[in-house]
Amino acid sequence: MLEPLGVDATCELVYREMLTHPGEGVAALAQRLGLSREDVGIALDQLSSLALVRQSYEPSGRQRPVSPEVAMRILLERQSAELEAHQHRLALSRAAATQLIAEASEAMADPQQVGVELLVGIDRIREWLSQLATEIQGEVLTFAPDGAQTQDNMDASRPLNLGLLQRGVRLRTIYLESIRSDAPTLDHVRSLIRSGAEVRTAPLLPTRMIIADRRLAMLPVDDHDSGRGAVVFSESPTVQALHALFESVWERARVVGGAPPSSKDADLAPQDAAALKLLAEGHTVESIAKRLGVSPRTARRITTSLQDRLGARGRFEAGVKAVRRGWLPMRD
User: Fold this and answer.
1) For domain 3-66, which CATH number applies: 1.10.10.10, 2.40.30.100, 1.10.8.80, 1.20.1090.10?
2) Is pTM, for the whole model, over 0.85?
3) Would you state the pLDDT for residue 232?
């Protein structure tokens, strides 16, 4: 019961027995629980390190358990501190990854680099896509992480997509789950499906991406600013790895027009699960809104609802309680 809070089964048994029979020593505890004295001694050391038992001021000098209320407060505060430290490490990791991407982007601009092309500006990207549309033979795979699509984007992509479908090219696209709440985007998607496209949705997508015929892959230099350009990889292990990433997300994504999530997922909808994961990682409401493809107001409503359902007063407590409920995995 207390394992999600860092207390293993043996320690919990010893702690509970000490609450029931305060003042007993190692030998008596071992006899009652059917454990060796060594096991009880190890458990007492661990409980002491967690501040769940303290040295008694009585002449016996034996250890005594803190009250369950104090124990829960100690354990929750400890978990909150660990979550905060984990979020700090995530922030540092994201900063390091951002730096790496920036350095890689500069390298990609090197015209001498084989198999990499840098496209600068929206016009250049659209020209490249128009040219690509005439060359594609078999399949186009797309991550579309912007949520509701703008009318300009839909108008620009529609003739290209329909032209590909008419030539027998297979189109597979993954949008964010949030498009199901946007009527114009959903109408656009359904129109593509009627023409032969395959479309699924996922709560989160790692990046914007297009893969053509498993030989070319285009990714943005900056997910938040398309105007900075895009990078095209060709005939490389990078393309193979990106293709594997797409297939992995596709397998878990939900078909548009398909069945709703199974009953085992009904306790937490896919979008709520994604929001909870981001909340526990330390994302702000604005960041969660961007990642889910919804408005800040909607993101605030989702996160507030999650905290209310968990009975949590803040994101750290929400993370702890979500782990205990099984909505988030336990950290190693």
Assistant:
1) 1.10.10.10
2) no
3) 87
